[in-house]
């Protein structure tokens, strides 16, 4: 009986560890995070919620050329249309497109110009001007 209890305890511990929340995966995370670390180190803007990141992207989009906007929209549609996905899919597709289009540095510059700072995943505050 004690072997069964020990096995169950081990199984429960493994399940709890695998269910622990993890930071969202960004397909373009490496270039995005590297550029964030270069332009605004320590602010951990990669930990913004999907909604807050989407708002920054929304402000950046009008500065793209019409062709670049179409490219980003196509990338989002291609990656996210067939799955039921929220903002995270669109954000990841947009980051990937920004990188491919060579505008990731500009986007990160705008993100760093905001007053957001994060202490952890989705634990972010925006200073009031």
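^ Assign residues to that structure.
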């Amino acid at each position: 009986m004690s072997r069964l209890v020990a096995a169950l305890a081990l199984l429960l511990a493994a399940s709890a560890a695998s269910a622990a929340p993890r930071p969202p995966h960004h397909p373009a995370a490496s270039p995005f995070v590297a550029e964030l670390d270069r332009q605004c180190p320590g602010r951990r803007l990669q930990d913004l919620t999907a909604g807050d990141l989407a708002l920054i992207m929304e402000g950046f989009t009008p500065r793209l050329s019409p062709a670049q906007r179409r490219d980003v929209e196509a990338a989002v549609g291609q990656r996210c249309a067939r799955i039921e996905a929220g903002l995270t899919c669109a954000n990841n597709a947009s980051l990937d497109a920004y990188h491919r289009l060579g505008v990731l540095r500009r986007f990160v510059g705008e993100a760093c110009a905001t007053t957001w700072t994060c202490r952890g995943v989705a634990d972010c505050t925006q200073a009031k001007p």
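Strands lie at 116-120, 123-126.
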